[in-house]
TrEMBL record:
GO biological process, one term: autophagosome-lysosome fusion
Species in which this protein is naturally found: Kryptolebias marmoratus
Name of the protein described by the UniProt record: ATPase cation transporting 13A2
GO cellular component, one term: late endosome membrane
Transmembrane portions of the chain: 171-189, 343-366, 372-399, 839-860, 866-884, 905-928, 987-1005, 1025-1053
InterPro entries per the UniProt record, alphabetical: ATPase_P-typ_cation-transptr_N (IPR004014), ATPase_P-typ_cyto_dom_N (IPR023299), ATPase_P-typ_P_site (IPR018303), ATPase_P-typ_TM_dom_sf (IPR023298), ATPase_P-typ_transduc_dom_A_sf (IPR008250), ATPase_P-type_domA (IPR059000), HAD-like_sf (IPR036412), HAD_sf (IPR023214)
GO function terms (MF aspect): ATP binding; ATP hydrolysis activity; ATPase-coupled monoatomic cation transmembrane transporter activity; metal ion binding; P-type transmembrane transporter activity; polyamine transmembrane transporter activity
Length: 1097
């Protein structure tokens, strides 16, 4: 009895806390009860200890310590949950993540850490933040065994085994014990193996060099690092053990382990601005834990190495977030698993009814009370299949294995089933739908007088600012003499013919050549240029870089001419953004029309601009905002971005499968439209309608307008006739933000019809995914894992095209370089989901078969024997349950999605009808047996297996044995999502063997098996054939029922309740928009006060 409360408290921790603790204010609590995933409660203890502080702590300087350490002796109270430490803050009156102590750090504050921390301050921070370790706990075998045994499944098994022992089912109980031991052993081995593998991946201890407050440099273990430590990075680089902000020098970093981005990224120093530091907004200046620094330069003595300050340690780092996402995957909002658990309650109700029936039967038969109790409990063990939760996961396990063979890796297997329900898939454009690399198509210089003629080769440009901008405005760097960087920038620099050189050693010679400025790189023009133009270009030195930002849509460099005669800022970015930063008198009048022309042709268009800077000013302290304003417009660079060969075929497959496809890109809207047409995301006969929305200003209200592409001077009737044949909306990021803020009633309709989302910022991509989910779409997202990280995480199914097997970006990573992995993932998801339904129905019907056969036998005072139960459960059911899920998906995607809810009419209807057919078959066999003239009724004063062998038992064993086999065939779905069951060769072989064995036991009863299985030897051979005929007829009836269900016969019952609107909001909205002839309202400028033509609730 002592064990029972422990089991209950392990299942429901809240009860354990209430039993031994009393409620108190959170500030005084010693034990916390944390509720996660709505229902699961976890108990955590609060740790308290005193901190000894320095007497003279500078409160203004060390603002992270002020939150906790404002007295000479302060009580630090914290708890740790999922690797993160939560500390009590009096001013917030709550436990907060330890990261809040650094949330107010500004970029200027981080530069203040360059002088390093003292040993005392470092010790204090280590007490607060803990060690710099991503510690993956590997539980001991005894701990794992204890947790596994206390699983409700095994507790139920133990109770069942005790019951079977009391009922003299010794062999069956011993076999179940053996199987349970093997199952627990395998589970413990796999769990511990995975934990060890993850621990080895997360474990990183290395020697690092830090700067002390005294100015000395000290080599310490990475475990001792704390936020605020000044990290000295050698020129050779290192595998970074923490997150750090780069303060001096440049670092070439391989981030593929985290983001899947295969191209090394150049990190530049963090500007010493007063804005709040965030690793997300300052990604180009942040070095992330787990990434490999390939090369560091320009930040240390002699021109090598770099200097950074530690910003996050342990689980607060980017690598810690990846490990945490693997250890504690996000809870799925998927109804299948929940419905499966709820259905066990229905089986429990069935068991309760069976218990009452058995109780009445046995009570009338004057059976002893101990026997009645055993028989009633035995019915419960039969009706409720404890292996159901484990069985329905086998489909996902097999699918995960097949995906891995195709180079698709999954860190969250339950997501595979969700992939089978995807109804809309969003794609990034560059690198996903189109090739990563681009080819230079041409250059056009521009000025107040207009644009010059198109120059197809930048080498033919005359010397000047445009040529210098193309050669210098990039973040390309050298690694062992080879240029590395963004593919677009590599092509741009290559097209100019200029050569990149980087200073060697301390760079004093190069610095002196360019006026004493610290040079990062030198761009030298080709010598052949002397023969093309009278005036040759001069070499230019890059002294400062402002890297590309998706939010700013631009990058810039600060350059110095030979001898330090002049300094110039060059800016490259989206044409709209660059033009907005230029002086209006320098932008050509034809800017918009020219940009429209090139973008409509599918070209990637970039604009370049420049501005002279006072060379005598402090160039290193110039702010980005000051450098990138009042620019002079230089011209446009056009690059051809080809669609990947597989893209069009995949989009066509998805459209035929009625899976909506959406493009989400940061590129120009016209370029995106052209690509959408090239890959058939927009059909040839379909129109594109541009959505333009403006936000509220001091002078005007927000506006919303729908305009047809290339509408010209057409009448409204002609326009509506064109639109009626099909249309797609195209919207850019600014308009999307305005619609979200000012036109919430129109937002669902725009989302329903929009196919192209252009100039979208990373946060807007994630917001788009969430808005589509609000419409009850099951959303998939495919991207490169870098700028799409937020959207990939937010999506129901996120696929990162990456070389890594695990990415912080998404639950799925694919090593293929195109989107062909998407249909494969959806096919496997549908296959896994269908198999899960099949296994669920099989396990339920297995219980029904055994439940009713036992009820019939108990009615006549007998039961199945020990070895009979063993034969049915192990040789028949278990063997089939493990191989049903091995069947693979069909090669093509069907136009319909499999059901995702168990609580549906087809599922309940099939289970009910098949149960009726099963009972009918068993009763038919029983009454046929009792109607034979040689039948001898069982008339015994004893109960159960002591009456074996007998006729009733034998006929039930024969028929139920066939039912276990054929019901596996009946519920195993194939068309239209899976291959036919005969493609599953192991399943087919087991079926053949089982049918052969069962037929042999019925027709030719071997004395050995007859003795051990306690079977009755029927002398009438025709009767044996009759039993096989009954089973075959039962099989045909079940097949007929399943066929009728598949063709939708049960849907006729829905006619009785009348047609109901869909539960999915996007389906209801689509019906409304399909019937509307007045939406979208073309060529009408609407304001928030206007009423929508199509209302929706």
């Amino acid at each position: 009895m002592v064990v029972f409360p422990l089991i209950v408290f392990n299942w429901w921790p809240r009860w354990g806390v209430l039993a031994r603790c009393c409620s108190c204010p959170t500030a005084l609590a010693e034990v916390l009860l944390i509720r996660v995933r709505k229902q699961i409660s976890i108990t955590y203890s609060v740790v308290s200890f005193s901190l000894e502080l320095l007497e003279h702590q500078d409160e203004d300087e060390w603002r992270d310590d002020v939150q906790l350490l404002n007295l000479e002796k302060t009580l630090l109270r914290y708890y740790e949950f999922q690797g993160l430490r939560y500390v009590w803050l009096n001013r917030r009156e709550a436990f907060c993540p330890i990261s809040v102590l650094n949330e107010d750090w500004t970029c200027h504050d981080l530069h203040g850490f360059q002088r390093g921390l003292s040993l005392q301050k470092q010790s204090e921070r280590r007490s607060i933040f803990g060690k710099n370790l991503i510690d993956v706990p590997v539980k001991s075998c005894m701990r794992l065994l204890f947790e596994e045994v206390l699983n409700p499944f095994y507790v139920f098994q133990v109770a069942s085994i005790i019951l079977w022992m009391c009922d003299n089912y010794y062999f069956y109980a011993l076999c179940i014990i053996l199987i349970s031991i093997i199952s627990i052993g395998v589970s413990l081995y796999e769990t511990r193996k995975q934990s060890i593998t993850l621990r080895d991946m997360a474990h990183l201890i290395t020697g690092v060099k830090i700067r002390r407050e005294s100015g000395e440099e000290d080599c310490v273990s990475s475990v001792e690092l704390v936020p605020g430590d000044c990290l000295i990075i050698s020129q050779e680089g290192l595998l970074l053990p923490c997150d750090a902000a780069l303060l001096a020098g440049e670092c070439l970093v391989n981030e593929s382990m985290l983001t899947g981005e295969s191209v090394p990224v150049l990190k530049t120093p963090l500007p010493a601005a007063d804005r709040t530091y965030s690793s997300e907004t300052e990604r180009r200046h942040t070095l992330f834990s787990g990434t490999q620094i390939i090369q560091a330069k320009g930040g240390g003595p002699g021109g090598g190495g770099a200097v950074a300050v530690v910003t996050s340690t342990g689980f607060l780092t980017a690598k810690g977030a990846l490990v945490s996402s693997i250890m504690y995957p996000q809870q799925l909002n998927f109804s299948f698993q929940k419905d499966a658990m709820k259905f066990l309650l229905i089986l429990g109700s069935l068991a309760f009814c069976g218990t009452i029936y058995i109780f009445v039967i046995l009570f009338k038969a004057n059976v002893t009370w101990p026997e009645i109790i055993v028989r009633c409990l035995d019915i419960v063990t039969i009706a409720v299949p404890p292996a159901l939760p484990a069985a329905i996961t086998t489909g996902a396990i097999y699918a995960q294995s097949r995906l891995k063979k195709h180079g698709i890796f999954c860190i969250n297997p339950p997501r595979i089933n969700v992939g089978g329900k995807v109804s809309v898939f969003c794609f990034d454009k560059t690198g996903t739908l189109t090739e990563e690399g681009l080819d230079v198509w041409g250059v056009m210089e521009g000025g107040p007088a207009g644009f010059s003629e198109l120059v197809p080769d930048p080498r033919l440009l005359p010397p000047g600012h445009m040529q210098s901008a193309l050669a210098c405005c990039h973040t390309v760097t050298l690694l062992r003499g080879q240029p590395l960087g963004d593919p677009l920038e590599l092509k741009m620099v290559e097209s100019t013919g200029w050569t990149l050189q980087e200073p060697e050693g301390d760079g004093d010679v190069v610095n002196a050549e360019y006026g004493g400025h610290k040079v990062l790189a030198v761009m030298r023009p080709p010598t052949q240029q002397l023969f093309l133009h009278r005036n040759s270009s001069e070499a230019v030195a890059i002294v400062k870089r402002f890297p590309f930002s998706s939010a700013l849509q631009r990058m810039s460099v600060l350059t110095v001419a030979t001898g330090g005669r002049s300094a110039m800022v060059f800016v490259k970015g989206s044409p709209e953004m660059v033009a907005s930063l230029c002086r209006a008198d320098t932008v050509p009048p034809q800017f918009s029309s020219t940009l429209h022309t090139f973008s409509s042709e599918g070209l990637r268009v970039l604009a370049l601009a420049c501005k002279p800077v006072d060379v005598n000013s402090d160039l290193m302290d110039i702010e980005r905002a000051d450098a990138e304003k009042d620019l002079q417009f230089l011209g446009l660079l056009m690059m051809k971005n080809l669609v990947k060969p597989k893209t069009g075929d995949v989009i066509d497959v998805l459209k035929k499968a009625h899976i909506r496809t959406v493009m989400v890109t940061g590129d120009n809207i016209l370029t995106a439209v052209n690509v959408a047409k090239s890959c058939m995301m927009v059909g040839c006969d379909e129109k594109v309608i541009f959505v333009t929305a403006t936000p509220r200003t001091a002078q005007s209200l927000p506006t919303l307008r729908f305009s047809l592409e290339d509408e010209g001077a057409q009448s409204s009737t002609d326009v509506m006739n064109q639109v009626s044949s099909g249309y797609h909306l195209a919207i850019d990021g600014k308009s999307f933000a305005a619609v979200c803020d000012h036109f919430p009633d129109d937002l669902p309709k725009v989302l329903m019809k929009a196919t192209i989302f252009a100039r979208m910022l990373p946060d807007q991509k994630a917001q788009l995914v969430k808005e589509l989910q609000k419409l009850k779409y099951c959303v998939g997202m495919c991207g490169d894992g870098a700028n799409d990280c937020g959207a990939l995480k937010a999506a129901d199914v996120g696929v990162s095209l990456s070389e890594a097997e695990a990415s912080v970006a998404s639950p799925f990573t694919s090593k293929t370089e195109n989107i062909s992995c998407v249909p494969l993932l959806i096919r496997e998801g549908r296959c896994s989901l269908v198999m899960s339904f099949s296994l669920f129905r099989y396990m339920v019907l297995y219980s029904v078969i055994q439940f009713f056969s036992v009820l019939i036998l108990n009615t006549v005072k007998t039961n199945f024997g020990d070895f009979q139960f063993l034969f049915c459960d192990l040789f028949l059911v278990t063997a089939l349950a493990f191989v049903i899920g091995r069947g693979g998906p069909r090669e093509e995607l069907a136009p319909c999605r499999p059901p995702g809810r168990l609580r549906s009419l087809p599922v309940f209807g099939s289970l009910f009808l098949h149960s009726c057919m099963i009972i009918l078959g068993q009763l038919a066999a029983y009454f046929i047996t009792t109607s034979e003239n040689w039948y001898i009724p069982l008339n015994s004063t004893v109960f159960g297996t002591e009456n074996l062998p007998n006729m009733e038992n034998n006929c039930m064993f024969d028929v139920s044995g066939y039912q276990y086999i054929f019901i596996a065939v009946v519920v195993t779905k194939s068309y239209p999502h899976n291959k036919h069951f005969y493609h599953n060769r192991i399943f087919l072989c087991i079926l053949v063997v089982q049918l052969a064995v069962m037929t042999w036991l019925v027709l030719y009863q071997c004395p050995f098996f007859t003795q051990y299985l306690q079977l009755y030897d029927f002398t009438d051979r025709m009767f044996r054939f009759l039993l096989i005929a009954v089973a075959a007829s039962n099989f045909l009836l079940c097949c007929l029922v399943e066929l009728l269900i598949d063709v939708g016969v049960l849907n006729c019952f829905r006619l009785l309740r009348g047609k109901r609107p869909s539960k999915k909001q996007y389906k209801r909205l689509n019906d409304l928009l399909s019937d509307s002839t007045s939406w979208p309202p073309l060529d009408q400028t609407r304001t928030p006060t206007d009423h929508s033509v199509v209302s929706f609730r």
